[in-house]
Amino acid sequence: MTHLLEAKSLDAFYGDFQALFGVEFHVDQGESVALIGANGAGKTTFLKVLTGLLPVPGQSLSLEGVDLTALRIHQIAARGIAMSPEGRRLFPSLSVRENLQIGASVKRPGPWSLETVEKLFPILAEKANTPSTLLSGGQQQMVAIGRALMANPKLLLLDEVSLGLAPVIVRDIYETLPMIREQGTSVILVEQDIGQAVAVSDRLYCLQEGRISLEGKSSELGRDEISAAYFGRAREAS
Amino acid sequence: MEWVNAIVQGILLGGLYALFAAGLSLMFGIMRFVNLAHGDFIVAAAFGTLLFVDATGVNPLWALLPIVPIMMAAGYVGQRLVLNRLSGKDILPSILVTFGLSIILQNLMLEQFSADSQRVSAGALDTSAISLGGGLTVGTVPFLLFLSAIGVIAVLNWIFAKTAIGRQLRATSDDPETVGLMGLDKRHLFGIAMALASAVVAVAGVLLAIKTNFDPAAGPIRLLFAFEAVIIGGLGSLWGTLLGGVILGVAQGLGAQIDPGMQILAGHIVFLVILVLRPQGLFPTKRGS
Fold first, then answer.
1. Binary contact (B171, A83; C-beta < 8 A)
2. How many CB atoms lie within 10 A of CB A210?
3. Does domain B2-277 have CATH number 1.10.3470?
4. Sorted alphabetically, which InterPro entries does this protein's record hold (chain A) (predicted)?
5. For chain A, what is the domain count?
6. B181 touches chain A (CB under 8 A)
7. B168 touches chain A (CB under 8 A)
């Protein structure tokens, strides 16, 4: 069976600087996969590669068997990869509703529409005409996720959802994840909070200095094993 | 009364400046792109009007029908083929290339039409006037010009506020990288923005041809007035640009009233004063983060 998304021995560079080394990664239909790692481990770089923001010509990266490396950012989005980027990156000149509407620009059919997204995050209907800059951090995060859902993606990338948010807000947001997955959407989430990442994912990858240092079922990995891979003690020991 | 008249004529002149400036404001607002050939594009559209009228003999306002779509298509294609290659963090390449374009255009027009000053006649419209009462009269052409400036800016604002393409253009102006994540092709959107700006250039060119004399070297001075109107009004606000044009026009009108030689200088002085007192312009776009 082909995976929904598959990267084989993937390298990525910023100019001469190599940020990812031989990354083996896959996501299956309906799966939730967490990507953890310390700052600078290459998590955000990996998501940039998946969305086409960082081109990786000649590498092996495919979505449903289709080579992504030859496509431009907007073509990858049209094929069904949507991202809620780190720092949210909402459009400040647009209202909350307009931010959501622009997410639907790819015109992919599916369960998500203005109506269903506003049902998932009711506060967004209430604040529909508010400029996105006047929202709280948590509400902005909801707009960013809602905007990505509007594209009816096959694969949703969530980059640092919890960054700068109060724990109670983070919990609220992650509580919507099962509803999103019910629609058949696969999720890759990048998370600093390991406990959170383990709790909401089926499988987990740990990146360390641009290499995959651990991979496995989230429920079967021990805390020690994860923190060893996270901080690199496993490699020093071997 | 003479002074009131000078102000009224200045306001109407401001409409022309606002038309020159609206396209410039749009290009900078969406693409962060300074087009030094903007004035020459307008003069080129004016020469297009001349060719059209010479060939058909109809009222020059009809020239809008072919020239607006031609300029829009040329704008889109030019953006995709040439200018998109320059878009990036550095503003210098676009300045150099459009400076070159400006020189090329001026010389092509010189080659084709000679250095003679040209004028397109709109027939009876040229000399007709509207009485405002109290001894004030305004020329029909300047009055129509002012109305079209308001019309053009109202239409542009409507496009930006209400249509999907307008929403996409505002988003592109905010963050061209993230727009790609929404499945939108930045290169295409830049082309659309250039096509819109070129439509305004076409309208400005046709009306310039009717309103006043022009020659192949007339572009840079138009560009200067357009820049001043944009800066006075504040970057990113089209109504601000209209007001900027009007302030510039009134300053020139009053300057000319004091001494005919003062006309252009008075406009520049007012621009300078505003630049010193309020460098962000009168209505800068508020941008949160």
1. no
2. 21
3. yes
4. AAA+_ATPase, ABC_transporter-like_ATP-bd, ABC_transporter-like_CS, BCAA_Transport_ATP-bd_LivF, P-loop_NTPase
5. 1
6. yes
7. yes
Find where tokens 């094929």 sit: A79
The DSSP H or E segment spanning A82 is strand A81-84
Which one of B167, B175, B186 has the shortest CB-CB distance to A89?
B175
* Nearest partner of A80 among B183, B180, B168, B176, judged by Cα: B183
- The domain spans of chain B are 2-277
Residue A80 is classified by DSSP as T
Q: How many CB pairs under 8 A join A and B?
A: 69
ipTM of the modeled complex: 0.87
Residue with tokens 């079967």: A220
What end-to-end distance do the CA atoms of chain A give, in Å?
Answer: 34
Phi/psi for A13 (5° steps) reads -130, 145
CATH number of the domain encompassing residue A95:
3.40.50.300
Q: Do B288 and A103 touch (CB under 8 A)?
A: no
Residues of A in contact with B289 (CB under 8 A): 92, 133
Distances (CA, A) of A103 to A90, A149, B164: 11, 7, 11
pTM of the predicted model as reported, rounded to 2 decimal places? 0.88
Taking CB atoms and an 8 Å limit, are A102 and B171 in contact across chains? yes
Residues in B touching A156 (Cβ below 8 Å): none
Q: Which of B50, B15, B54, B22 is nearest to B198 (CA)?
A: B22
Extract the tokens encoding A131: 């400029």
How far from the centroid of its chain's Cα atoms is residue A77's Cα? 13
pLDDT tens track of chain B, all 289 residues? 788 989 999 999 999 999 999 999 998 888 888 899 999 999 999 999 999 999 999 999 999 999 999 999 999 999 999 988 887 768 888 899 999 999 999 999 999 999 999 989 888 888 888 888 878 889 899 999 999 999 999 999 999 999 999 999 999 989 988 999 999 999 999 999 999 999 999 999 999 999 889 999 999 988 999 999 999 998 878 899 999 999 999 999 999 999 999 999 999 999 999 999 998 888 877 543 3
User: What sign does the dihedral B277-B280-B286-B287 (CA atoms) show?
Assistant: negative
Instruction: Give the structural domain span for A160.
Output: 5-237
